[in-house]
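$ ./design --mode recover --in tokens.txt
reading tokens...
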């Protein structure tokens, strides 16, 4: 069984903004500010349309066979196309169950648009049963299939009025939630060259997501109490063995 709980972090695509809005001559920071200002004027919010989100990191909490690990694609300044290609290559290789929090509403559509812009091929991800009959009734694209489980969507009963933030749900379940940073800080941290802080933040999010997925599996009977405890122990041991400060911080907040 292979499982990828994943999350992305993004910043404004200033190159795309220049093409769309005639912002030539502006540096990246000024172009981003102009894009956000135009969006605020248009909608009252500075949340950009999804095709204008440039991916800077993709983090994954992965159970591959019997092994659990946490990793990120991106080391700061990496080519966006290469990050997205590597993510889809992981799907091609491991054919995992994808688990996300609002992945249907944000992460996956962003990856769709950005893959389209970069001309990236991802046949296994887009398979719906034409070449592999096993994907006909369980593929990554159908909202109600399980190759991708958007926990936020499922727990809300597929009702937009019932959704809740990852941080709040994780905290209510006794998990660490956010640890000193939020998504609103990502752009400023990237502009300041603090990529590692963004990567660590994203990895905390996928750990929260994965542990909530284990709780969900317990709730719906896919895991019994012993199996749930064993899976949590697997995560615990992997974080201890990793000996990485931000994972130690997560572990301390989780276990006390």
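writing sequence...
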């Amino acid at each position: 069984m292979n499982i990828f709980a994943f999350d992305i972090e993004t910043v404004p695509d200033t190159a795309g903004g220049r093409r769309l809005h005639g912002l030539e001559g502006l540096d990246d920071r000024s172009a981003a500010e102009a894009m956000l200002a135009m969006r605020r004027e248009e909608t009252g919010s500075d949340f950009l349309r999804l095709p204008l989100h440039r991916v800077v990191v993709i983090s994954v909490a992965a159970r591959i066979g019997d092994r659990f690990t946490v990793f990120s694609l991106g080391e700061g300044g990496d080519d966006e196309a290469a990050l997205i290609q590597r993510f889809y290559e992981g799907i091609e290789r491991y054919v995992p169950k994808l688990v996300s929090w609002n992945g249907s509403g944000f992460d996956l559509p962003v990856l769709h648009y950005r893959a389209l812009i970069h001309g990236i091929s991802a046949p296994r991800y887009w398979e719906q049963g034409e070449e592999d009959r096993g994907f006909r009734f369980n593929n990554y694209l159908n909202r109600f299939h399980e190759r991708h489980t958007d926990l936020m969507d499922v727990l809300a009963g597929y009702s937009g009025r019932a959704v809740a933030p990852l941080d709040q749900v994780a905290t209510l379940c006794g998990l660490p939630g956010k640890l000193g940073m939020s998504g609103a800080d990502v752009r400023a941290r990237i502009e300041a060259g603090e990529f590692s802080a963004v990567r660590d933040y994203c990895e905390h999010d996928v750990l929260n997501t994965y542990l909530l997925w284990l709780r969900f599996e317990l709730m719906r009977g896919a895991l019994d109490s012993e199996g749930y405890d064993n899976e949590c122990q697997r995560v615990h041991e992997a974080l201890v063995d990793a000996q990485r400060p931000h994972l130690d911080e997560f572990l301390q907040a989780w276990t006390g």
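exit 0
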